């Protein structure tokens, strides 16, 4: 031990213990050694955390309604388990998010994809099949109607989906089914929270994903009308670039989202069974 200490002192050019002191008394330089040891161990733990996915930054982009209704809550659940992983969230529609993935601005995109696939440079992991409903405030007059018809939808004003949202084309499909070219649009362009706030105070209707309505069930502010609608051939899922190194933290978050959506599927199924569709 004496030889090792002498070699270390010779290497750093400074004494580590005060000469002639009994018991041994460390010099100020030796005291810094403890801080260096702690910092070294922390650095090692940080590197291990990045390699295993328990530390790091995950950049997630997604379509607004799904991000606000479900993904943000799922991220919170993930960080309750992995508190050292930071998540940076952004919004966009499919073209914007594909461009962000290509430019390495985000790690994961939560998007609905229809007939046109993203292409071989992207990998898509399905989370939820698409299903839309006509939503209204809880207690709306249409929820009490005994025989609800698609033509009854013309009696209320509508909330238009966000610009660029695939829900806009879905709304047009419903209007074509009803035989109308247009309806009264009273409000448009709002976030999910603003749409729900607006609907809860009016008789306005909106086309929303059924999963979004189910996710808001505890608020008891909006409900789904029991009408069968033309459904889009669209799936919600995780879009990622292929052939690119991925952080383990992003992989762990993707796995967490997959598990969370499996639980949500069962909840949605129970709600579907509880509604008399086409009443």
Automatic annotation (TrEMBL):
Identify the PROSITE patterns for this entry.
HTH_LYSR
Sequence ranges assigned to domain HTH lysR-type in this UniProt record: 1-27
Keyword DNA repair listed? The answer is: no
Keywords in alphabetical order: DNA-binding, Transcription, Transcription regulation
InterPro entries, sorted: HTH-type_LysR_regulators, LysR_HTH_N, LysR_subst-bd
Query: Pfam families annotated for this entry?
Result: LysR_substrate
Question: Looking at the record's lineage, which domain of life comes first?
Answer: Bacteria
S-adenosyl-L-methionine among keywords: no
Q: Which PANTHER family match?
A: HTH-TYPE TRANSCRIPTIONAL REGULATOR YBHD (PTHR30419), NITROGEN ASSIMILATION TRANSCRIPTIONAL ACTIVATOR-RELATED (PTHR30419:SF8)
Its protein name is: LysR family transcriptional regulator
């Amino acid at each position: 031990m004496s030889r090792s200490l002498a070699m270390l002192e010779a290497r750093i050019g400074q004494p580590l213990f005060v000469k002639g002191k009994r018991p041994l008394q460390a010099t100020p330089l030796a005291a810094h050694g403890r801080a260096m040891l702690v910092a070294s161990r922390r650095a090692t733990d940080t590197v291990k955390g990045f390699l295993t996915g328990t530390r790091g930054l995950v950049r997630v982009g997604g379509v607004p309604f799904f991000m606000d209704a479900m993904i943000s809550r799922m991220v919170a659940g993930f960080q309750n388990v992995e508190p050292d992983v930071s998540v940076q969230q952004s919004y966009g529609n499919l073209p914007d998010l594909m461009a962000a993935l290509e430019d390495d601005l985000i790690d994961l995109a939560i998007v609905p994809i229809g007939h046109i696939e993203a292409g071989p440079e992207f990998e898509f992991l399905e989370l939820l099949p698409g299903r839309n409903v006509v939503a209204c405030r809880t207690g709306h007059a249409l929820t009490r109607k005994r025989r609800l018809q698609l033509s009854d939808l013309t009696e209320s004003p509508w909330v238009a989906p966000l610009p660029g949202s695939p829900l806009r084309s879905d709304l047009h499909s419903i209007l074509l089914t009803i035989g109308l070219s247009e309806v009264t649009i009273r409000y448009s362009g709002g976030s999910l929270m603003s749409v729900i706030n607006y609907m809860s105070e009016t008789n306005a209707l909106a086309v929303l994903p059924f999963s979004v309505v189910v996710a808001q069930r505890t608020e008891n502010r909006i409900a789904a009308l029991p009408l069968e609608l033309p459904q889009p051939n669209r799936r919600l899922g995780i879009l990622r670039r292929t052939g690119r190194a991925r952080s383990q933290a992003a992989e762990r978050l993707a796995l967490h989202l997959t598990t969370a959506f499996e639980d949500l599927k069962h909840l949605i199924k129970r709600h579907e069974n509880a509604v008399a569709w086409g009443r």
